[in-house]
Amino acid sequence: MTSQQIEVIQQSFAKIAPISDKATAMFYGRLFEIAPNTRSLFRGDMAEQGRKLMATLSVVVSGLANLDAILPAASALAKRHVCYGVKASHYARSVRRCSGRWRRVSARLGRPSSLRHGPPHT
Q: What is the block-wise mean pLDDT of the chain (122 residues), using blocks of 10 residues?
């Protein structure tokens, strides 16, 4: 990932952070719409789940320039998700479709989307 891509992602995230409650509600609403089988993976308060999502995204987005620093936490998170019953098949379709939601939120804020061409390839 280039420094310019990192900057665009960080700028886009900074625009969405102030409306994080609405953004995460939209994200999960779309996720459950396109992948209803994922709804059973979530227990408890979805507002709290949204806060956890934004906190995790904040750490990741802030650490994009130093991936070695965030990889241990990301790895631990991935392992927890396996214990929750999340499967690789849940991600491909969901991420692709939910990135469209991110683009629409970003566009409504009048900002170019960092995900216009999909997630960066490694």
A: 91 90 89 87 91 91 91 86 79 66 64 45 39
- State the CB neighbour count (10 A cutoff) for residue 27: 20
Q: How far is CA 72 from CA 16, 59, 64, 65, in A?
A: 26, 12, 13, 15
Q: HSE of 50 in the Cβ direction (CA atoms, 13 Å)?
A: 17
What is the rounded CA–CA span in Å between residue 78 and residue 92?
A: 15
Residue 25: burial class (beta carbons within 10 Å; 0-12, 13-18, 19+): middle
Token representation of residue 108: 């409504």
Tokens representing 23? 């953004």
**Structural domain includes residue 30:** yes
Exposure of 20 in the CB half-sphere (CA atoms within 13 A): 17
**Structural domain count, the chain:** 1
